[in-house]
Design a protein that fits this description.
4-stranded parallel sheet, about 15% strand, homodimer, elongated, DNA-binding, about 350 residues, 6-stranded parallel sheet, 14 strands
DNA sequence: TCGCCGCGCTAATACGTATTAGCATCTATG
DNA sequence: CATAGATGCTAATACGTATTAGCGCGGCGA
């Protein structure tokens, strides 16, 4: 166990070049202000030594002395495993990484954050937020109290997904669920559907609220537009309820529920969309095997990732030019599960 | 644009608790050595103030003063996009993340590293390696010169995948391709195959060498064991060559090539494995659609990720207890593309 | 000759923490 | 009562960089 060789510092460079440490720093940062000047030959000498030694400034000391670090933190709320939900988050990360690369930032994943009561916590006795210049918050449910705290501390952050105010507006880049759902409802209405049901997951997350709001806003001309909480894992009962009340098109918040519903329908000899149209409201959050392309929409995950970095950098350097809240449009997926209600209506 | 509120420091805590900054640090680090003692009531007082303010030590200052940072760097060599190859690397990252979480480390992705001549470079005028305590190197081809440099600088690192020495042994966690390929060859021999061909990708990466070595070592009892470099995108020609020389089983390094070969065979009315057995030697590095389960093996990617973190932490803290080079076994995949050579032999 | 100014650089300090030597104070002992 | 040792804490310093006030020097004008 040899003691590691001490790292080359600016002092070393300074000694070799016969100048002071301050001069090395000035040359390194290419300061050409009127305030401080370095003679070209001195500069060259220093640069030559730097090149010879392969010196690179210690980013840690640098950040301590100055203000920024060029590190973007990523905080993932969802429990890391099972890795299924990871596939859902992967596209966000791809987008984040792409944009981080473009702006020359490194990415810090806060994997050290401890899990308390089944949830990752940002704030704990040894939180390391300050390693990063700011932080991207990723996850379906984000603790409101922690958002409050972030706002209070003035720590730069941005949430992926719309969030309600938490002691001030929350910067976010979300998907415009409301209008995506509304557009799907309009399509269904145009095709003649009059009895619509919204099948919710029973959570109170903003993303759920938005979808439901879009549904209600667009379904005003329907004969019937009700909401139903889907008991997980009991597609049969749900199907009974839907058929009993004459629903012809069901809007399913949770992708897996839609798949289960379709299977249940097929088992009973019901056709989709012949007897029941099924519309999904977002990408699967866990991998669900299915050969069917459901009618619904796609969450622009990569783009959300990219733009969250963009917004964050704005928050960090305080250039509050643009609004720090963005909703991106979702692309509709044509699919094969939304038809006309004819057969379903005949059935009544 | 208000000036951001100055961060709470140990000095602030010290003032509030009526002690010195050093005392705060000592309490924080729970130092109970015989060297330095703090009275229980003092300790409690400090802890109470810390709890009230929600203070957490600045990790940057901490790392500057002490030695470690609890940050594991991840350097991805492959060009980040197209995202296809990302899917190949995702499992490694999952494993890395899982183990990093377990040991309480954050993960730093060096996305800021610039691309020079089509390759990411570790060393550049402003490399930020020192942000991390050590670094995991991920990528099919890793520049030998950079490994040399890492060794020379004594920077802790570990490569994912076996690497030849580079100015000293390279710590790595690799897959045991040689023995996986050898086992597949033995299976083929047991099933009666005597004319085997190894279809290489024409690269000189260690992973290719290892596979070929395993092939040669196990194929000694074969009638014919030759090697062929597959010209990309010309499966037809390759197939001709194979059939012309009586090959009954072909071992294909690149998964996509195997898929193309099978398609070409089917187009000609040849059966796989009836007329030609095809064995793949690893997971697809780019997504290739296919319904067939090829006989071959699986690279233990998640486990490699996990163990690379384990090895790295060993390298970092210098506890050079275990060897820093590990080869993990690959799991064979039964598949449906390796049969007996009967029909193929009859054809001759 | 003196004073002034612009140039090129350096000394000093700050950033926030960890660590160590050592200073008071107190207790026990002779 | 003097001394030794234990106890509890603080002052000082180091980590490596960025920043700023200001120093020495040479030239130039009066």
């Amino acid at each position: 166990m040899t003691t590691p060789p001490r790292r080359v510092t600016q002092r070393d460079i300074a000694r070799m070049a016969g100048v002071s440490q301050a001069t090395v720093s000035l040359v390194l940062n290419n300061r050409t202000d009127a305030e401080v000047r370095i003679a070209p030959e001195t500069r060259d000498r220093v640069l030559r030594v730097i090149a010879e030694t392969g010196y690179a400034a210690d980013p840690v000391a640098r950040r301590l002395a100055s203000r920024f670090n060029r590190i973007i933190g990523v905080f993932t709320y969802e429990p890391a495993f099972p890795s299924g939900s990871r596939d859902f988050f992967h596209p966000f990360l791809l987008g984040i990484e792409e944009y981080a690369e473009r702006v020359g930032c490194d990415l810090l994943l806060f994997t050290s954050a401890p899990v308390v009561d089944g949830r990752r916590r940002i704030f704990h006795h040894d939180n390391r937020l300050r390693l990063a210049d700011g932080c991207i918050l990723l996850g379906r449910e984000i603790d409101g109290a922690e958002l409050h705290r972030l706002n209070r501390d003035g720590y730069p952050y941005v949430a992926v997904g719309r969030r309600d105010d938490a002691g001030g507006p929350v910067p976010y880049v979300g998907a415009d669920y409301a209008s995506a759902v509304a557009r799907l409802v309009e399509v269904a209405l145009r095709r003649g559907h009059r009895r619509l049901t919204y099948l919710s997951m029973g959570t109170t997350a903003e993303s759920s609220e938005d979808r439901l709001r879009g549904f209600r806003a667009a379904a005003t001309t329907a004969e019937s537009a009700r909401q139903l909480s889907a008991p997980a894992g009991d597609a049969g009962t749900t199907l009974d309820t839907l058929m009993a009340d004459g629903t012809t098109a069901v809007f399913v918040e949770n992708f897996a529920t839609a798949v289960a519903l379709e299977s249940a329908a097929r088992r009973r000899g019901l056709a989709v969309p012949g007897d029941l149209s099924i519309v999904t409201l977002g990408d699967p959050t866990v991998p669900v095997p299915t050969d069917i392309t459901f009618t619904g929409f796609r969450i622009p995950r990569e783009e959300m990732g990219r733009q969250s970095v963009e917004v964050l950098t704005g928050v960090i350097d305080g250039s509050t030019g643009g609004l720090q809240q963005r909703l991106l449009p979702c692309e509709l997926v044509e699919g094969s599960t939304l038809g006309t209600p004819d057969r379903a209506v005949d059935r009544r």
